[in-house]
Write a structure and sequence with these properties.
Blueprint lengths: L8 E7 L5 H8 L6 E6 L11 H18 L1 E7 L2 H14 L4 E3 L4 H7 L4 E6 L1 H5 L1 H10 L5 E6 L3 H6 L6 H16 L4 E5 L7 H7 L4 E3 L2 H15 L11 E5 L6 H9 L4 E3 L5
Parallel strand pairs: 1-2, 1-3, 2-9, 3-4, 5-6, 5-7, 7-8, 9-10
């Protein structure tokens, strides 16, 4: 297990599992001077099936422990469901910047040509008041919104079954509904889903697919510039990774998904 000096400035990237690697991969390309720590609460995966109270308490507890052990400069909640249920509580509790994930409904509105927009998200995200408010804020009567729960998708993506028949069986009714509703723009409302974005694009060649990775990077970079305006760029140092449930293949999966080999396991904070 890897340990580090407590005063080393760090950026936390948090998710329930592998989905946040779609964000981590892009953060690596920023060549930040801060230590990156990827935290996966895979013991409680998928968050989309957990209750609001459980997620809020669990995420706050994890960050309380992290805050005791590390000098956190910023955190990315690379999980839409954790954002929906815990982002406000985290911001109330901690002083460091919290970069949260929101489904890209606003950019989808600007991209759609026929005002028919699909949103693929977890059941937990879809039920949240934060998500409902987001849809109400950016859409109007002229928009037809097709909201689809990605039941079983997170679990299959975690297994990295991006070409197997089980994943195809899960995607088939989703694809059919989007085509039937004549959707021309699809919002990916879970950080796991960009991991199969290429597959979705092949199945939906005429539909624009929106994820919010680029927007998250801009927000994070803005916070880092405010915190350390004289900060220097450098090659990303070894990333620390911690998981709440030990799985032998998890570290190799993260290396594969990010294309970054310098990832070392650290002890999960409790």
């Amino acid at each position: 297990m890897k340990f580090m000096a407590q005063d080393t400035p760090v950026i936390i990237i948090f998710d329930s599992g592998l989905g946040g690697t779609s964000i981590l991969k892009e953060i690596i390309s920023l060549n930040l001077s801060q230590q990156l720590i990827y935290v996966a609460d895979n013991l409680n995966l998928p968050y989309g099936l957990q209750t609001k109270d459980f997620i809020e308490n669990r995420v706050c507890d994890i960050f309380s422990s992290l805050n005791q052990h590390y000098s956190i400069e910023a955190a990315v909640i690379a999980c839409n469901t954790a954002t929906a249920y815990a982002a406000n509580a985290l911001r109330d509790k901690f002083n460091f910047p919290i970069v949260a994930m929101e489904p890209g409904i606003k950019p989808a509105i600007s991209l759609t040509k026929n005002n028919k927009i699909g949103i693929l998200a977890t059941e937990g995200t879809i039920k949240s008041s934060r998500f409902i408010s987001l849809v109400d804020r950016f859409t109007s009567d002229q928009h037809k919104i097709c909201i689809i729960p990605g039941v079983g998708l997170v679990e299959e993506i975690e297994n990295q079954s991006t070409s197997d028949k089980k994943l195809d069986a899960i995607l088939l009714p989703i694809i059919n509904e989007l085509l039937q509703e004549e959707v021309d723009t699809l919002v990916l409302g879970c950080t796991h889903y960009p991991l199969i974005k290429n597959k979705l694009q092949k199945l939906l060649p005429d539909i624009q697919i929106v994820d919010t990775t680029e927007a998250v990077l801009k927000v994070l970079a803005g916070y880092i510039d405010q915190i350390n305006p004289q900060g220097t760029k450098q090659d990303t140092k070894a990333i620390l990774f911690m998981m709440s449930k030990n799985e032998e293949t998890y570290l190799s999966k993260i290396k594969k998904l990010t294309g970054f080999s310098k990832i070392e396991q650290a002890k999960f904070v409790k």
